[in-house]
Amino acid sequence: MEVPLLEVLLYTDGSVTRILERFFEEVTIDPLETRKLKVEGREARLLGVPDGDTVYVRRVVIKVDGRPAILATSLARPDNLPGRLRRLVLQSRKPLGKMIEELRLETRREILRVEEARPSPEDEEILDVSVPKIPWREYLVYHRRTPMLLIRERFNPEVLGREG
């Protein structure tokens, strides 16, 4: 049985970047922004912080062979990021999964949602897609049994397969 790459990426609890490196010649990370954000409601509850708490937001585009494949938005809870990871999240072009591996952090990932949605105008522009729906997922990364990262990834089916 052959499983499409996009299905593997949507349901893995491992490193998406490492999987992409097995299928493509070049995988690069293009940072879009890193900033602080006050979270409320569902995001605060998922991260285990009070409403109004400040987290780090990191948005990147993961490109494969020069084509935008994934738009990833990470919300990082600063008080549960080990010091070196905190600095890297704010400054590095490396994928978060590789940073976690390099620092040998014990983590667990919990996939919360895997869905399809109409691409927003931003998705269309950044991912360069023109399909009726794009797959996306949301998951938590736990460290020390506490949420450390809330990550949302929006996938380009024109690059990764199973077009909208």
Automatic annotation (TrEMBL):
Gene3D superfamilies: Chorismate lyase-like. Keywords: Lyase. The keyword Lyase applies. The keyword Lyase applies. It comes from the Archaea. It holds the Pfam family Rv2949c-like. One of its GO terms (molecular function) is lyase activity. SUPFAM superfamilies: Chorismate lyase-like (SSF64288). This is Chorismate lyase. It comes from Methanopyrus kandleri.
